[in-house]
Amino acid sequence: MAKFAFIVPPLTGHVNPTLSIGAVLLQQGHEVAWISLDSSLAERLPQGGQLLLIQYAANDLEKQESELYLDIITKKIVYGIDSIKFLYEDVLIPLNRHSYKGIVWWLDQFKPDLIITDHQLVAGAIAAVHQNIPYATSVTAPAAIKVMDELPKVHEWEQNQIVALQQELGIISGKSIACSELLTLVLTSGAFFGEMELPDQYRFVGPVVHKRKGNSSFDWDRFEHMKGKHKLLVSIGTTFNHEHKKSFFTRVIEAFGDGPYTVVVVSDPLLFDHWPANFIVQQNVPQLDLLPHLDAVICHGGHNTVSETLSNGLPLVVIPIAYDQSHVAGRVVRTGAGLRLNFNRFKAKHLKEAVDEVLVNPAFKQAAEQLKVSFVAAGGTAAAADLLVQLTLNQPAVIFNT
Amino acid sequence: MDTVVSAAKLNSNEIFDLMKQFITEVIGEEFVEEMDITLESSFTKDLEMDSIEIVSFSEKIKIHFGEKIDFTGWLSGMDIDQLISLNLGMIVNFIEECQ
User: Fold this and answer.
1) How many CA atoms lie within 13 A of B39 on its CB side?
2) Sorting pLDDT into bands at 50, 70 and 90, what band is A22?
3) How confident is the model at residue A92 (pLDDT cuts 50, 70, 90)?
4) A340: distance to nearest CA of chain B, Å?
5) CA atoms within a 13 Å half-sphere pointing along the CA-CB vector of B86
6) Chain B residues within 8 A (CB-CB) of chain A?
7) Helix or strand or coil: residue A400?
8) Which positions in chain A touch B53 (Cβ < 8 Å)?
9) Alpha carbon of A80: minimum distance to chain B alpha carbons (Å)
10) Owning domain of residue B36
11) Which residues face A137 on adjacent strands?
12) What is the pLDDT of residue B3?
C-alpha cells in the first residue's frame, strides 16, 4: 500500500475532483492526505482521508494572509485578458509563495510515496523536486493549459510568472515544472479539449465527477409538479461576487420569469425579495441528482459544471465571466454542444433566444451526447486512480522530476 | 495583373469604418449602437471583448486583407500589457502603414 498526498489550492473546482480520486485510493487501502490552506476541507474529505492544514500560527501576519487567500478571488471584478493578469499577479503567485513553506513542512512529516499537485499550485511541484519525491499533476481546469495560437505571448507571460517564482524558490530551470513530466492528468476528454500537441505523459482521463458529501435538501415534489415544460438549471458557480450575481440574475428573471420553463437557480435566495413562481432558488442543490431530470443548463463556464452537464448529454448556454471560462465556452461552441453569450453585454432576450435554440435544435443535444460518450471512454475517476497507483508500483529508486 | 479589386489603398477613415464593421460582426449590431466607438476605444476595457472575441476579430482582418497585411503576426508579437491596452487607433495605424 502506498501513501499519496494531494496538494490543492483553496478553490472548490480544483479540490472536488481530487476528493473523488482520493476516495478510490482510500477504498483500495492506500493512505491519502490533502495539503491545503483551507480548514473547512476537513468536513468534505472522504472517510479516512487526512487533512494536513497549512498553518503559520507562530506568525500573525502570515496567518492573516492565509485567510485572505481563501476568498481573494471573489473580491475583484475582472474581465477578459485583464483577468489573467489579476489571477497570476494577485492570486496564484502570492498564493503559491505563501503556501510553499507549509507544503515543505508537511511533506517532511508525511513522507508520501507520490504527490499529486494541482496545475495551478506549482509550489507543490517545487517542494516535490526539492524533497526528491515523485509528483503527478492534476489539471483540474484543462482550458488553462490551452495555448492560443494567435496570442502566444499570453501563455508565455503566464509561464514567465511561474518560472520567476520557481527561481525564487531555488529551481534553476527556465521551464515551468507545473505539469509533471511523469504524469499529468488532464480531467477532460481529448474530444472536448480540442487539437493541441501535448507530450505523452499528458493523459486525458475524462472529467472526474464529484458527488458532494451531505445531501442538499431539495423539494422534489414541488419540482415534479411544476408546469414549466422546459427544465433548466442556472448556476454561475462559487467564485463571483454579489454585484455580478445581481446583474446576472436580473436578466435571468426577465428571460424566463413566468414562461414555459421550470428554472432551478443556484443562488442565495435573499439576492432578491421576489423570485418568479416558476423558479426554485437554493444556495445549494443536489446538482448530480438533478441533472438527469433537466433539458439544458445555463452556466458561466466553470469546468466542473460544464463537465457534469455534458456527462448527462445536455446542451448548454455558457456565459463566461473571467479566467479560463472564455476557453471553456469556446470549446462548448466548437464541439456544437451549446451557445455562448457575452456576460457584460447579453440581454434577457438573447438569453431566451439562445436557450430556446439549444432546446429546439436537436443538433446541440446530439453533440452533447457524443461528448458524454467520449467522457465515458476516457475512464474518469477509476482511470485516474489507476494511473496514480501504477506510478507507485513501477518506480525506479530515484525519480528526477526535472 | 490579378486580384487587386479589394487592394485599393484605404485611408484611415475607411479603415476605421471597416474595423467598426468587423467589431459589429463579432459582438452584434445592437451592442455597437449603444457604444461610442472611437480610435481610443480599447478592446478589453471599453469594448469588453475577451481573448476569444479578439481572435475572431483578427480572423476577419486576415480574411479581408489576405497576405498583404500580417495582422496575426503583429498581434501574436504583443505581450499581455500591450494586448490589454490595445485600441482601435493602433490597429488603424498598423493597417495604414502596411498598405
Assistant:
1) 11
2) very high
3) very high
4) 11
5) 29
6) 27-28, 31, 43-45, 48-55, 58, 72, 75-81, 83-84
7) coil
8) 342
9) 4
10) 12-98
11) A117, A184
12) 45
Please report, for the domain that includes residue B37, its CATH number. Answer: 1.10.1200
The alpha-carbon gap from B18 to the nearest alpha carbon of chain A, in Å, equals 21
What per-residue confidence (pLDDT) applies to A170? Answer: 97
pLDDT digits (tens, 9 = 90+) for B48-93: 888 888 999 999 999 999 888 999 899 999 999 999 999 999 999 9
Q: Does some domain include residue B3?
A: no
Amino acid occupying residue A174: G
Q: Which residues of B44-83 are buried (b: 16+ CB within 10 A; e: fewer)?
A: beebbbbbbbbbebbebbbeebeeebebbebbbebebeeb
Domain count, chain B: 1
> What residue ranges define each of the domains in chain A, with the CATH number in brackets?
3-206+379-394 (3.40.50.2000), 220-377 (3.40.50.2000)
Average pLDDT, whole number, for chain A? 91
Flag whether residue A327 sits within 8 Å of chain B, measured between CB atoms. Answer: yes
- Residues A327-349 have a mean pLDDT of 93
Confidence of residue A239 (pLDDT cuts 50, 70, 90): low
Task: Answer yes or no: is B70 within a domain.
Answer: yes
Closest-CA residue of B relative to A345 is B31
Select the more confidently predicted residue: B67 or A99: A99
| CB-nearest partner of B51 from A80, A156, A342 | A80
Phi, psi torsion values for A23, nearest 5 degrees: -60, -40
Which chain B residues touch A353 with a CB distance below 8 Å? none
A153 touches chain B (CB under 8 A): yes
Q: Where are the beta strands (DSSP E) in A302-380?
A: 316-318, 338-340
Contact: A153, B53; criterion CB under 8 Å: no
Mean pLDDT, range A339-347, rounded to an integer: 92
| Nearest CB to A151; choose among B45, B48, B83 | B83
| Between residues A197 and A169, the one the model is more confident about | A169
B28–A345: do the CB atoms touch at under 8 Å? yes
In a domain, B45, yes or no: yes
Candidates B43, B51, B53; nearest CB to A154: B51
On whether residue B32 sits in a domain, the answer given is: yes
Non-local (6+) Cβ contacts of A160 within 8 A are none
Distance, in Å, from the CA atom of B75 to the CA atom of A179, rounded to the nearest integer, reads: 27
Residue A153 and residue B27: Cβ atoms within 8 Å?
A: no
* Interchain contact, A342 vs B54, CB within 8 Å: no
Look at A388-392, B34-38, B75-79 and tell me which has the smallest mean pLDDT.
B34-38
**Structure-model confidence comparison of residues A239 and B45, the more confident one:** B45
Cα separation, A227 vs A234, in Å, equals 18
Window 333-352 of A: residues touching B by CB (8 A cutoff) are: 342, 344-345
| Span A230-234, average pLDDT | 98
